[in-house]
């Protein structure tokens, strides 16, 4: 099973994982990493590295809140360095994307999962009138 790490600014990771637990139950092999006010990038790096290495999975999907932010940049650095696991990174994730990753990882290969997660995340953003059209 693919491991999942959700990271973001503030309490983004805790918030999205809390919402998912409320709707879908507590997921397995998933960790959240918050980047809160007062933390430095080195602390974020250590927390993200810990989350990746403590998951049992050898394939890790890292999902971050925004392209170009500190969680994204640190994840890119860790991927370049390698931590003994195969990793993929998706930026700009929302709850729809994380739920797709959570359920899809048992149905699809690691390489098939990532485009599905991206598509679901994009598809989860709609203006309300579009639903009635």
UniProtKB/TrEMBL annotation:
PANTHER family in alphabetical order: PTS PERMEASE-RELATED-RELATED, PTS SYSTEM MANNOSE-SPECIFIC EIIAB COMPONENT-RELATED
Superkingdom classification of source: Bacteria
Subcellular location: Cytoplasm
Protein's name according to its UniProt entry: PTS sugar transporter subunit IIA
Major localisation: cytoplasm
Entry keywords, A to Z: Cytoplasm, Kinase, Phosphotransferase system, Sugar transport, Transferase, Transport
Cellular compartments per GO CC: cytoplasm; membrane
GO molecular function: kinase activity
GO terms classed as biological process: phosphoenolpyruvate-dependent sugar phosphotransferase system
């Amino acid at each position: 099973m693919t491991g999942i790490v959700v990271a973001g600014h503030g309490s983004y990771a805790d918030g999205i994982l809390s919402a998912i637990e409320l709707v879908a139950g507590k997921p397995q092999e998933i960790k959240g990493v918050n980047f809160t006010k007062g933390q430095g990038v080195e602390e974020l790096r250590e927390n993200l590295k810990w989350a990746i290495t403590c998951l049992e999975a050898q394939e890790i999907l890292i999902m971050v809140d925004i392209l170009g932010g500190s969680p994204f940049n640190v994840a890119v650095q860790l991927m370049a360095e390698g931590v003994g696991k195969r990793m993929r990174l998706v930026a700009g994730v929302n709850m729809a994307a994380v739920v797709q990753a959570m359920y899809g990882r048992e149905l699809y290969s690691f390489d098939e999962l990532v485009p599905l997660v991206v598509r679901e995340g994009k598809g989860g953003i709609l203006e309300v009138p579009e639903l009635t059209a």
